[in-house]
Amino acid sequence: MNDSTDRALRLGTRRSKLALAQSGRIAEAVRELTGRPVELVEITTYGDTSREHLAQIGGTGVFVSALRDALLAGDIDFAVHSLKDLPTTQPENLALAAIPVREDPRDALIARDGLTFEQLPDGARVGTGSPRRMSQLNAWARSLGRRVETVPIRGNIDTRIGFVEKGELDAVVLAAAGLTRIGRIDEATQLLSPDVVLPAPGQGALAIECAAANADLVATLAELDDPDTRAAVTAERSLLAALEAGCSAPVGALAELSPSSRLRSSRGGPKADEQAVTELHLRGVVGSTDGSTLVQMSTTGHVPASPDDVSTPQNMGRELAAEMLAKGAAGLMGERAL
Ligand SMILES: NCc1[nH]cc(CCC(=O)O)c1CC(=O)O
């Protein structure tokens, strides 16, 4: 950067409690990293002001475009996004400088009376407007020989939990990571296993973005990157992109690195000069919103431990998408939520 290196760095953030919590934590990390003050600049995005349902306004990018405009105008130096809200195509003039260690990627259920999903009565009203959640929750209910009525809701996390507190809904489903970040994870009555409900691609991960031209800042922020998280979310987002689906499509994906291979990569001895590899397990799902049809597939690949080259995860996502499309995934994504 040409400007004074002790000038405060401006971090653009949405005003929601979740966004402020996420930005506050990253601001602290950047302060520690650089020794420079970090100032939060609050920005309102279309996704915050629109009263429409996300499935209707398209979802893709509604939370991020105002922050990106501010980055490109030079009004802010960097921004923190929920990775799952970022469109899969990265603009060339903006850099995803860091993807820090991911929180729990799972969805969480908050139900009345401490109930789990299995304990909900037939016809229970479950708040979610996400086609991905509707599809998998309806499929799960079917497998239990029951039905749930999914009710589209909007608003911030507190508002959504409020529907259960006020007795208007039996349950809501939210990202566990969001609940953790605003300090309400203890209210989850169940964490939904990815064997039943796959999260949104990138769920639980943050993205730190800045102007690509600001090479010094890109390099500084890169210190906060977690290569394992980047590999996993790259595979998930590549799957989403190759399905030609947006963040409001009924697509779930989760990539996990096998823990055992981390041991392998850190073990010394005669094998220390071998290329350390780790296994990346990628699961994907696309479903009809009524849950009557799900295309669920998975794949396992070998990637370098803590890769700085994400071409393998990218290919895995693309190849799994091709297999899912061959099994009829495209027809399921064309379906629009009501
Ligand atoms: N689309 C809204 C959104 N974007 C990110 C999160 C939660 C945090 C995360 O997934 O990283 C949420 C709320 C939710 O889905 O419950």
From TrEMBL:
Catalytic activity: 4 porphobilinogen + H2O = hydroxymethylbilane + 4 NH4(+)
UniProt cofactor note: Binds 1 dipyrromethane group covalently.
Modified residue annotations for S-(dipyrrolylmethanemethyl)cysteine: 247
Listed cofactors: dipyrromethane
PROSITE patterns reported for this sequence: PORPHOBILINOGEN_DEAM
Signal peptide limits: none
EC number of the protein: 2.5.1.61
Domain of life according to the entry: Bacteria
Membrane spanning residue stretches: none
InterPro entries linked to this entry: HemC, Porphobilin_deaminase_cofac_BS, Porphobilin_deaminase_N, Porphobilinogen_deaminase_C, Porphobilinogen_deaminase_C_sf
Keywords on record: Porphyrin biosynthesis, Transferase
MF terms (GO), sorted A to Z: hydroxymethylbilane synthase activity
Domain Porphobilinogen deaminase N-terminal span(s) in chain numbering: 9-217
Keyword Transferase: yes
Porphobilinogen deaminase C-terminal domain location: 232-325
Subunit structure: Monomer.
Note: The porphobilinogen subunits are added to the dipyrromethane group.
Protein purpose: Tetrapolymerization of the monopyrrole PBG into the hydroxymethylbilane pre-uroporphyrinogen in several discrete steps.
Family as reported in the entry's similarity comment: Belongs to the HMBS family.
Protein name as catalogued: Porphobilinogen deaminase
Source organism (scientific name): Streptomyces sirii
Phylogenetic classification of the source organism: Bacteria, Bacillati, Actinomycetota, Actinomycetes, Kitasatosporales
